[in-house]
Write a structure and sequence with these properties.
The chain is 39% helix and 23% strand. By secondary structure, the protein is of the alpha/beta class.
Length: 316
Amino acid sequence: MQQSLFSDLNELAAFVTLADTGSFSAAGRLLGRDPTAISRRLSAMEARLGVRLAERSTRKVALTEAGRTYLARIRPLLDALQTAGSEASAFADGDPRGHLRITLPGSFGSQWLAPLIVEFLVAHPKVTIEADTSNRFVDMIGEQFDLAIRLGELSDSRLVARKVSERRRLICASPDFIARHPDLQHPQDLANCPCLCYTGRTDPYRWTFVDAQGQRASVTVGGPLASQNAELLVAGGIAGLGVLYTSDWYVGRELASGRLVEVMPHWQPLDRGGLYIVTPAAKGMPSKTRAFSDWMASRLMTPPWAAPFRSEGQER
């Protein structure tokens, strides 16, 4: 097999430093290496190239014509590599810059993340963002997404998940509806009560709860409205059509304003979960991704939708 003519970067750097200093001892001092190691590198390069690159004396090293020609070719390449390395390091350690591909839950993104994304871009003008809000399952690695914000429970072990806060499920209704159904104290009381069912759930008509002691209760429900459109169900709840099974972030404003009121807060729906910031890997994360992750985590750690809720008991 033909011997490779290519040197490694350390040999090339040693050759350029030797050419600039004119001696093995001076090159060794600059590189922090023994002068004999520099001499061996030069000899190895000459052996591979089949040509003498420098003439040696006890005090001075002078490049041959072949050495000068070789130096003229490799110096720009080493400078370019150094520049490329500095630019790449800037993505990890410098100001956030570059294009960021993120994926978000659609409704949650529109309600609570959109303002934070805009604020981040204003604060980091060297970053651009492409946001997918399609609610489809995204293969982050295969589709080359930098970051995802996800709700619920996670199962993909290839990903690094940073839990930011809890996602709380609850049931709620309008104050008018509660006034007309004052005896809602136990999940079984929902069996004969109008309920609004989200058909996007696996079993939308079976609601399971747990109390503070860990006791569980399940009930089959039904009512005047079922839909995969959560906004429609919220509108129905505000209008007093029935009890709504939803997430705290979805009705945070309605709970804070009193248009909806939490029902049976001592019984929590069993389906909980969390809010996660997810990345393909933690090591070597670019500064753009780390900055966006930290930005979102700092603002979502205390959920903006978690205003003091007015519970059923507070309304009475």
